Amino acid sequence: MTDPSPAPRSIAVVLGAGGTLGRAISVALSGRGLRVVGVGRRADPPPDLLAAVPDVAWCEADLSDEAGGARVAELVDGPVRMIVQAAGLPAGGSLAELDLALIAVAMSTKLGGWLRVVRALDDRLVAGSRLVALGGHYGAEPSPHAPLAGLTNAALANLVRQMSAVYGPRAVTVHLVSPGPVESERMQRIATVTAAREGGTADAVLDTYRAGSPLGRLTTAAEVAWAVALLLDDEAAALHGSTLWLDLGRRHGIG
Description:
Layout: E1 11-15, H1 20-31, E2 35-40, H2 47-52, E3 57-60, H3 66-75, E4 80-85, H4 101-120, E5 125-134, H5 147-167, E6 173-179, H6 185-198, H7 202-211, H8 221-230, E7 243-246
Parallel strand pairs: 1-2, 1-4, 2-3, 4-5, 5-6, 6-7
Helix pairs in contact: 1-8, 3-4, 4-5, 6-7
């Protein structure tokens, strides 16, 4: 009698896998034994992601409409252990200069995109699956210098609590990971734009962001990836519906 076929590897779906955080998270989850399906707007995976995770399955998709979720579902042929929303936001600028059309874009992409993929893969979720979104410091610590991040991430925190009530009875847990400003290509671009508008240098702008933490630095992509991978542990079910703050002590509130 022949041995039965091995069970398929569990899958991690990473939205925004082409960005700094998405790449780091993809590498960390692959290291935990998951098969990674990376989703992004670019046609091919970034070379550094492909080098670190050679078996990554890449899906080019615009998650602002239903067709994007369906495209992702076509690539997923096994049980889904984790779906991570790691897509970034447009810079947006200060409250005085914010293009209000970007609010709808950000909500549709970050919140709507995550929900579209979760719905498309609902029948592949299993007991112990994790639904994870990356929020951010400004969702709880509003700043007129980063209104788009504040509005979107506050809404995301609300959505996580709603989803926790819906998916908890299926033993599928929902989590929000909220870093402060992250050392990244995007942060460098924001600093460059800010310096051009307000004077000074990008390095000086970054130093101001670093000074916002008692540790005098920014959160790293490796720290965010560590926190997301940590949620794979069985004990992480106790964090269902909660927020993991990775803001290096920036928040002033106790809530």
